[in-house]
Amino acid sequence: MDNNRNYDAQRPRKKVSRQTMRVRRLVALLVIALLVLILVILACKACSPKTDNKGGKDSKSKTTTTTTTAVTTTMPVPTTTIIVTTVPTTTEPVNNSDFKLDKYSFEFAVGETQMPRVLEHPEGSGEWNEMWSSSDENIATVDQYGNIKAVAPGSCQIILRDGGDQTQEVQIQITVIGSPNATTTTTANGLTADPQSTAMSAPAPAKISDPTAHYEGNTLIVNKSYPLSSSYNPNGLDPTCEEWFYKLVSAAAKEGINIFLSSGFRSYDLQQSIYNNYVNESGQAAADTFSARPGFSEHQTGLALDVNTIDDSFAGTPEAIWLENHCYEYGFIIRYPLGKDAITGYKYEPWHIRYVGSDVANQIHAMGANATLEELYNVTSQYAE
Ligand SMILES: [Zn+2]
Question: Most buried of the four, 31, 251, 270, 378, by CB within 10 Å?
């Protein structure tokens, strides 16, 4: 060991000529230059795909460039031709945008309001970018949330554009008729037709066709004591309930409150699979406090719906508070209020509203905070077994 160390220390250093030193320096410089070059190339690569692949803003600037070229060279823009040749498959307006709506045409009466539901926005965009306008405000007006109001008989288009990319545009065909149409008058509880007077009086829903259904007066009761038969399937929300729900949505929107439908009609079969899943997850006793057994769910009536976030985080939000204070004005009640578990059979569900019509909703409202259908009619809600 010692021997080796001594050998190393005493080993004479090799003499390096000046020329070799110069060559070495040159090589070192070249290596550094090469490294810098590689870094620059990498940096460029990292930047370039971003600008190419982004949606929204960049596709907008792209479009602008195309248009400018087209104007200066007066050449036809190929994309325009594609749009023109698209064949309409229905009588509804053609939608070439990335917006998806539930309806593209409306026929309704002077004084009434409608609101198309936006199911999809262009990629990277959303509700906040919606820009609504009317082609003729003498026929129908539209507000910033998409509430369309019929002003006078005639037809026009309501246009929805995306604020981020205004080439994204969809048209909604509006036909306004002079008096409320048949569908609204039939649900109006015998009252004919002044939309102003029916506006504050939600009719009782029509009686359902299930012969085993339990009624108290005009009010259908579905709870743990009163089930529906497994064959009862209206296959959707009751039309009156749906109509008044969207009146509620419009009214809330005018106050900056965003209420949306999360879960409406549920069939017997769907409830069965939901309930079974909960039982498997949490056991039957726990499941029974928050999920109805098949046949016992109000959602099977088509008169109940869950809005916004279906969990405890919804409680106390401005939307939940608005709903609690105003839903009765549109014929709805909070079906499972706070502290009434023993009476309704369910824990507090601020998101679950039930359409009963103005008469019953007003009665329950007058009974004070957190009153229930069970208390109004003095009925129980308990499973028989
Ligand atoms: Zn519900």
Answer: 251
pLDDT in tens, 45-66: 555 443 333 333 333 333 333 3
Strand partners, 162: 130
CA-to-CA dists, residue 26 to 18, 29, 30, 31, 67, angstroms: 13, 5, 6, 9, 53
- In angstroms, what CA-CA distances link 64 with 67, 73, 78, 124, 130? 5, 14, 14, 19, 20
pTM: 0.52
Measured in Å, residue 344 CA sits from the centre of ligand 1 at 13
Contact yes or no for 140/119 (Cβ under 8 A): no
Query: How far away, in angstroms, is 292 Cα from ligand 1 center?
Result: 9
Q: How far is the CA of 263 from the centre of ligand 1 (A)?
A: 7
Q: What is the mean pLDDT of the segment spanning 102-115?
A: 84
pLDDT single digits (tens) 206-232: 999 999 999 999 999 999 999 999 999
CA 189 – ligand 1 centroid, Å: 26
DSSP-derived secondary structure for 116-157: --EEE-STT--GGGEEEEES-TTTEEE-TT--EEE-SSEEEE
**How many A from CA of 336 to the centre of ligand 1?**
9
Spatial neighbors of 70 by CB under 8 A, at least 6 apart, are 76, 77
The Cα-based distances of 94 to 82, 90, 146, 161, 239 in angstroms read 13, 8, 19, 14, 27
User: Which among 380, 337, 330 is positioned nearest to 360, based on CA atoms?
Assistant: 330
Residue 34 has a pLDDT of 78
Cα 299 to middle of ligand 1, angstroms: 6
For residue 298, how far is its CA from the centre of ligand 1 (angstroms)?
A: 7
- CA torsion angle 92 95 100 106 (round to 10): -30
